[in-house]
Write a sequence for this structure.
């Protein structure tokens, strides 16, 4: 008898539990469904076309498998040159951004909120301004008879107007202008979270402010610096607009070559192979920095 | 720190910061006086003043057509990206899935891929579908770019919101959707609006995809500006640039200044 009275009770509870579980599962499914429109969009417009890009990069005009699009990248001088120039520009722009951006981020993180908030507008304002508008502004400023050349001549620094635009110089100035906020914002965010007591401890133990900076502050700010630096560098690698306008056709980077290939060749193989190489480079750099940052985080606890 | 280093010793730091910020802010502003120039050249500062470039803009069928395309693309992108991003942010925040980082990573993957590749890929895809140079194709591509910004902005809004309030509404009998619309949404309104604004600006300012996917009468404003900048510079661009600066920088500037004021109180 005892068994027969407890059994229905037990099954009832089990039943109740599975119902709860089912409810929870249904709720999770519903919540997951909320993410699906975004995921579908990413699948359809990002993953599918990129898979396609890989596919095109391995077939020739007749649809036969081939490596010619890749071998061309390594053997043809023009392609090699494009990669060299892309890396040169990206490294140079990133380096200038670090030299200018690190002190600015440091200064902002040290100032009272009243001032840093105000100066932050100066970093955000170009961020909100259209890329084309800023590129146009540089075209005006850097031209032969532009304000920069006029000022240099008036000051007697140069005799002849310098060729500042439609070349490498213009491209680099324009790109630095666009990339600085991408370096400063993540760096500033990470500097804000550095615990000031470490520096006070260093000072109490007799370290000079310079030494405290180099031995305590700089290492602590490195993760933020690497995050900003990597972001800047990969954005540079794939940059199209500013080199196309301020380079005046004389500065060929990977993205421009891809754009030209799409319009130039009847098949999509050459553009696809370049695209795949660019994507792999970007992904490798991101993964490497992720790994590096993870190691630091573990070491710093 | 402060006691060790005087402001005087830091002078070079302050000076450099001010210089870099001038380098960032001032160049764009040059387009404003340029747009009121009376001459058909890139001379700066202008010798004569006029409104002829604004006049040119509002009387040019080509520029107006392109502006109208851009406004429609940006509008529909906002309409699409805001709910998609907000829904995903909600699902991820409440769901706490084991694989949430993977979903999140996929949703913001468009940020990691160089835009030129997204443009080429979309060009392949929409060429197959015979949808090149259509507004829906541009809207879909721009939505892909805008969703990560909406997601990140709204997710930040959720962090500062107590989900128990929605639970209370639901335990009192409100349906989840109704509870969200009447209780949660008004609380995270600011972040959703910021996300929507981001979406609009991203779509309106997008150039690379527009170069691949639009042309002729369907060209966006940015596409037309880009070809004009590359081939022959038409000072009408200065007028358009000034309008764009006003459109894209004044609203966030006001919000930023308001939030600074709030911090002080």
């Amino acid at each position: 008898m005892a068994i027969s009275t407890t059994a229905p009770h037990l099954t009832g509870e089990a039943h109740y539990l599975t119902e709860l579980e089912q409810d929870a599962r249904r709720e999770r499914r519903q919540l997951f469904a909320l993410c699906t429109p975004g995921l579908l969009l990413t699948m359809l417009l990002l993953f599918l076309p990129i898979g396609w890009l890989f596919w095109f990069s391995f077939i020739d005009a007749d649809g036969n498998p081939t490596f010619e699009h890749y071998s061309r990248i390594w053997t043809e001088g023009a392609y090699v040159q494009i990669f060299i120039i892309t890396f040169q520009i990206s490294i140079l722009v990133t380096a200038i951004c670090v030299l200018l951006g690190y002190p600015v981020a440091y200064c902002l993180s040290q100032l009272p909120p009243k001032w840093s908030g105000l100066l932050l507008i100066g970093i955000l304002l170009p961020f909100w301004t259209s890329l084309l508008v800023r590129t146009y502004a540089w075209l005006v400023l850097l031209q032969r008879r532009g304000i920069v050349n006029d000022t240099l001549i008036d000051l007697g620094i140069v005799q002849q107007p310098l060729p500042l635009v439609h070349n490498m110089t213009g491209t680099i100035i324009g790109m630095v202008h666009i990339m600085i906020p991408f370096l400063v914002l993540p760096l500033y965010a990470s500097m804000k979270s550095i615990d000031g007591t470490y520096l006070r401890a260093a000072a109490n133990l007799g370290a000079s402010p310079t030494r405290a900076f180099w031995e305590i502050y700089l290492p602590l700010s490195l993760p933020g610096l690497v995050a900003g630096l990597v972001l800047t560098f990969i954005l540079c690698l794939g940059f199209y607009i500013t080199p196309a306008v301020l380079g005046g056709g004389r500065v060929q980077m990977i993205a421009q070559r891809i754009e030209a290939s799409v319009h130039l060749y009847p098949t999509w193989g050459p553009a696809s192979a370049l695209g795949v190489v660019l994507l792999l480079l970007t992904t490798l750099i991101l993964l490497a920095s992720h790994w590096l940052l993870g190691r630091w985080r573990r070491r710093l606890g | 720190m402060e006691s060790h280093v005087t402001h005087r010793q830091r002078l070079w730091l302050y000076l450099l910061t001010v210089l870099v910020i001038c380098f960032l802010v001032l160049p764009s502003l040059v387009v404003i006086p340029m747009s009121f120039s009376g001459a058909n050249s890139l001379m700066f500062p202008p010798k004569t003043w006029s409104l002829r470039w604004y006049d040119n803009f509002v009387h040019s069928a080509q520029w107006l057509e392109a502006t109208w395309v851009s406004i429609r693309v940006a509008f529909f992108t906002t309409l699409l990206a805001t709910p998609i991003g907000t829904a995903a942010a909600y699902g991820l925040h409440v769901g706490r899935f084991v694989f949430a980082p993977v979903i999140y990573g996929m949703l913001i993957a468009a940020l990691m891929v160089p835009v030129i590749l997204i443009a080429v890929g979309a060009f392949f895809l929409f060429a197959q579908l015979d949808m090149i140079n259509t507004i829906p194709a541009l809207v879909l591509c721009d939505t892909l770019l805008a969703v990560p910004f909406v997601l990140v902005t709204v997710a930040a809004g959720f962090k500062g919101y107590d989900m128990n309030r929605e639970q209370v509404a639901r335990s009192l009998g409100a349906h989840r959707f109704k509870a969200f619309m009447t209780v949660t949404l008004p609380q995270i309104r600011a972040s959703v609006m910021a996300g929507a604004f981001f979406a609009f600006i991203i779509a309106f300012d997008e150039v690379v995809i527009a170069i691949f996917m639009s042309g002729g009468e369907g060209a966006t404003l940015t596409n037309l500006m880009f070809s004009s900048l590359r081939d022959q510079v038409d000072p009408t661009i200065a007028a358009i640039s000034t309008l764009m600066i006003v459109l894209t920088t004044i609203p966030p500037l006001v919000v930023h200044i308001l939030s600074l004021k709030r911090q002080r109180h």
User: Anything to note?
Assistant: Residues 44 and 91 of chain B are 53 Å apart (CA to CA). The two ends of chain B are 27 Å apart (CA to CA). The first helix of chain B runs from residue 11 to 29. Chain B has a mean pLDDT of 88.
